[in-house]
Amino acid sequence: MTDESPSAWFTLTHQRNVVEIDFAGVITASAFLTIQPTNPSLQAIYLHASPLMTVKNVTLSSATTVDPLHPTPASFALVNPFQPLPTRDPPIDMKSHPEIKRKMWATMAEADEGELAISVSGGWVRLQPAPGQDSHVAFAPIHVQVDYQLVIGGDVVEGIVFKRPGDAGNEYTTHPHDPNKVIFYYLQANPTSVQHISFAAGPFEMHCISAEESHKPIIGFCLPGELEWLENSTSFLPRVMAFTTELGSYPFTDFKIVFVNNLRTECVTAATLAIVSSDLLHPPSIIEQAIEVRKTLSLALIQQWIGINIIQRTFSDTWIVNGVALYILGQFLRHLLGNNEYRFRLKKDIERCVLQDQGSQYPLCMPGIIEPPDAPTTAFINLKAPAVLHILDRYLAKAGTSLGLSQVIPRIFMAALSDALPGNTLTTGYFLRQCRKVSGLDMGTFADQWIYGSGCPRLSVRTNFIKKKFTVELSVSQTIPAIEYLNSLSEKQQQMAIWKRPTQFFEGSLTVRIHEADGAPFEHLIDIKTSNKTFALPFNTKYKRTRRSGHIAARFHKAHTEVDETLNEDEDEAQLQAADRAGIFAYPPWEDEDERRRWKVAEWDEGEANAMLGEGGGYEWIRVDPDCEWLTVIEFAERPWCWISQLQGDRDVIAQIEAIYNMRMYPSPVVASELAKTVLVKNYFYRVRMEAARALSLYNTSECDYIGYFLIMKLFQTCFCYASTTSEAEAPEIRCRPLPNDFSNIADYFVKKSLIAAMADLRDPATRSVWKNVRIALLDLIRLNDNTTNRYSDSYYLAAIIAAISNAFTISAAAQGILSESELESEQLMLKEAKDVLDRAMTVDRLVPSFHNVVTKAGLQAQIKSILAGQRTNDARELLSYTREGNYEPIRKIAFDGLLLCKPPGRSGAVDQYLFDVIKYDHSLTIRRYVTRALSESILVSLALGEITSAIPLPGVLDLTDETEQMRTQRAEGQNNAIVKALRKDFGNKLDVKQLVQDNLIESVTLPDMEIRFALLKLAEVISSSTTEPLPGNIITLTTPLIETPVAPPPPKIRISMSGGGIVSQSQPTHESLMEESQPVVPRTIPKIILNTKGNATANKKKK
Question: Where is the Transcription initiation factor TFIID subunit 2 TPR repeats domain (predicted)?
């Protein structure tokens, strides 16, 4: 906001609010504001006020020591900027969406200036002696009292969530006049941004989570009946407080967490307070939600340090505030859940970040932006910012002299508590300066690459072991997908994407860890300064043969005893070390030959074994960037036994995950056997075992003799079912009769669910349908499920089985076409059986609800998938009952998704009318917004699925031999324009839908909810072309009166007597307002001074 704006001519120095809440839906309140003028031209104060409230009275006062002004009613005006569209000829319709959009933006700009205008003209802006400085003057403060009332009733009002933060504790007294009322006093002593002031009122039950003297008290509030779940869900919060306090003192006096129903977002954080959805509460019997709840609630408490007490100075600094909070959260989760969980999540976050940052994203920090980031941009910032801080921490710790961010973050927290951080606002520059101070490193290159630049590199690594020189030649080449993406755009699109500023080249140190023949790791640091370079990395050991750490390799070592006899003592020691490493992840039952035969454990053939054992003095495996110091994708091709050695010999979770990812590229039964052994060995981290289980489904091919099919069924039957009567049964003969549920081993529980998901991926390559005995096994799992002796809930387990059944029984129309008549009849019988099983599960869930109705959610998703695959009748009535009010909101969202996927706009007039009635009248604002957004998305999904046939271009032959970049761009734009034109033509015949959209769009202009307005506007843009906005009519020009510019009053006229007479002023000053501007000031003449030498002083011809 510019300094010339009238809204910048005053500052708000203090605010006090008195709010009386009637739970019938009426809020009566008074706001007491202290305004400090900063410009003498101030005539009106503009404040933000909801047009839904009624302003009863506005009073002004100015209690100064000299000439105080007593409370006086003031003139005010409450304006609603959201006015109906004007009536004109031609009338405004849906094709006028460009004009409607322009008016919406203008209305929002007007609302940003303030809806409540209060007049302060007439002497309220005045000067007074500055406190403690009689020779200086300052503007007198103005006290404004606004009395208002908000009648909510049954309407949906955004921002009304009925506990206000208090630093001095809660004072609780009975109302002096009405014994049925209670008064709570709250005081916010710390300076806090207005968006971080919240309160909630309700019949809460209170639980003191922690009252130890070692840290600040933590208090929880919930609605009646949820106290036991509150105690279970928040028991870890004292550990969060203790962990974060080690970085800096808690900036407030306590922390309160309130759980309420029907919250718009999952968690809203305010000063000393977090308002959280009660959906996050869970009993001790729930496993899955316990992990996610710890993440959400921990972040809410950590944000009290940074996010509430410390905020960003500009919108471009949002990344550092969000990033530091999420980085601390990651460190706490490492402390709470273990290093393996932290490393696994870090690897997954980096993979997602690299996948998204391929040219379509903006940099983390864009100096100069004037608008806050939208929801998708904020989600990407929250993903990339903590990852960038992780690599910055590694950079500071390795290249500098500090301990990384563990020294930077406490300095920032200390600066905020000691008022050394101006306004408690953090900037990117301040953060980088602190990093430079503690490490002594220049942060310019790092910041330009990862903070002020976008994109992530792609590294391609190739190795070559030179036996004569005992060195490894490592070739590293770098490509930037973001640059390639932008270069593929047209010139016009490139100009629009100039703000994305992709980094041209990433440079820095890359760590290469070589596990040599004896298994000892040696790290090498290579500097990446060019796009392509080969590095010669020396070896430190010189053994004649590589000692593989795997048991498969050990079997071939045993077969070459004549060679082993020539080994020296060092090599013997290396072999013992390799055997010791392999023993950590060994599976002893497979040492027996009969057991190996029953499991069909494959071994390398003679050629592969000789190649593996003949790598004289070679390395076992190589890790590139083992500490995740780069946000990159590394393409590294190695031989399969190297990945097996890495899986068995490296204890790092990331190394094991990378090995499994790369092993999937080799369709070998040996690799499949190693993956199966990984599932069986419980020394592996459970998430590694889950990844191995899912990877086994890729080996369900004839090339691997369907070994993946056999191993998945064998694993599930062995680990989670009653023992089979035939130990050497083939895959189609394996029968799974599940044991009663026992989820006491959490790791085995998650592995069990992964195996069930993998079973649904076992498809017959000939028919593209899941093997029959696999589908029977999945149905038996839900039929024979027994949870009577299990102390944990099986809700999520049943949902996983239902999802697997849905995937297993879904067959494409093309796959059904190749089935014979008997096979098709058998498929229909099995499909009916599966449908009955799922319907029965959903019926039971209605009678005995699962936790958050997860069984019904999975069943609805299965029904929708069957409808889309043409296996179930497209009957909207099956979904409509789940969309009605009163159902759990996530259930309603899934039902609306299915309704719009199966019956997109224009297919059914009754469904269309129902959807728009939900948008207008539903009591849940969340549902109204969700359905409005889903309308336009469902049309685009129908277009992508080819259901709008007129929008699909006809096939043809194109000559692309001499096609230039400009021609290719023109062809792509032409195709897009043709698709848009065909889509709008298709909806041109659907007049009922267009009329519904038009009526709701025009009506939404007067509604205060911005999301619904813009979602309807987007829908209109999709289905309708636009018309040019007509020019305004005749313009009447009025001449404005000339207003003279006020000037300062001249000094008074004085006559001075030179003979010692008194000095008399011709005009004595009076106490009046110096800033009155109701009348223009007329300039006076230049003052005259008359010197009288006769000894008499006169003034106005009167003798003194």
Answer: 642-937
The continuous run of DSSP H or E covering 352 comes out as helix 339-356
Q: Are residues 659 and 793 in the same domain?
A: no
Q: What is the structure's pLDDT at 575?
A: 53
Q: DSSP string covering 302-335, please?
A: HTTTBTTTBEESSGGGHHHHHHHHHHHHHHHHHH
What pLDDT is attached to residue 167? 37
What distance in Å separates the CA atoms of residue 222 and residue 753, rounded to the nearest whole number? 33
**Dist CA 280 CA 268 (whole Å):** 13
Which structure tokens are listed for 806? 């849905």
Q: Are residues 999 and 1091 in the same domain?
A: no
pLDDT reading at 1068 higher than 70: no
State yes or no: pLDDT of 814 exceeds 80.
no
Q: CB under 8 Å to 740, separation ≥6 — which residues?
A: 786, 787, 788, 789, 790
Work out the mean pLDDT of the chain and round it to a whole number.
Answer: 84
Nearest Cα neighbor of 868 from 905, 950, 949, 813 is 813
How far CA 261 is from CA of 61, 276, 298, 888, in Å, comes to 41, 9, 20, 11
pLDDT tens digits, one per residue of 460-469: 999 988 888 8
Q: Which domain holds residue 951?
A: 883-955+967-1026
Nearest Cα neighbor of 128 from 947, 1075, 770, 932 is 1075
Bridge-based pairing state of the strands 54-62 and 44-47: unpaired
Domain count, the chain: 5
Q: How far apart are the first and last CA of the chain?
A: 57
φ, ψ (nearest 5 deg) of residue 762: -85, 90
State residue 1079's pLDDT score: 43
Residue for token digits 């910048």? 8
Residue ending a domain, among 451, 486, 503, is 451
677, 552: one domain: yes
* 348 CA to centre of own chain: 15
Tell me which residue has tokens 């498929």.
827
Dist. CA 673–CA 710, nearest whole Å: 11
Do the domain assignments include residue 620? yes
Residue 660 and residue 17: Cα distance in Å, rounded?
Answer: 60
Do both 1006 and 1100 map to the same domain?
Answer: no
- Please tell me the number of Cα atoms within 13 Å of 500 on its side-chain side: 20
CA angle at residue 882 from 881 to 887, to 5 degrees? 120
> What is d(CA 1076, CA 1067) in angstroms, rounded to the nearest whole number?
19
Using alpha carbons, select from 866, 868, 934, 922 the residue that is nearest to residue 896. Answer: 934
User: In CATH, what number is assigned to the domain containing residue 318?
Assistant: 1.10.390.10
Three-state SS letters, 497-516: CHHHCECCCCCEEEEEEEEC
pLDDT at residue 1087 greater than cutoff 80: no
Distance CA(711)–CA(699), nearest Å, equals: 9
Highest mean pLDDT among 456-470, 676-690, 1088-1102: 676-690
> Is the pLDDT score of 251 beyond 70?
yes
Strand partners of residue 538: 471
Q: Name the one residue in this structure whose structure tokens are 């007067």.
A: 1006
Q: Which of 420, 451, 482 corresponds to the end of one domain? A: 451
Give the β-pairing of 273-277 and 255-260: parallel
Q: Are residues 916 and 857 in the same domain?
A: no
Select, from the ranges 514-528, 1032-1046, 1082-1096, the one with the highest average predicted confidence (pLDDT): 514-528
1048 burial class (0-12, 13-18, 19+ CB within 10 angstroms)?
exposed
Q: Is 339 helix (H, G, I), strand (E, B) or coil?
A: helix
**Would you say 326 and 385 are in contact if contact means Cβ atoms under 8 Å apart?**
yes
Residues 333 and 439 in one domain: yes
Question: Which residue(s) pair with 311 in the sheet?
Answer: 425
DSSP label at residue 279: G
SS3 182: strand
Q: What is the pLDDT of residues 173-199, one digit of tens each?
A: 555 666 767 777 777 778 888 888 888
Token pair of 1035 as six digits: 């313009």
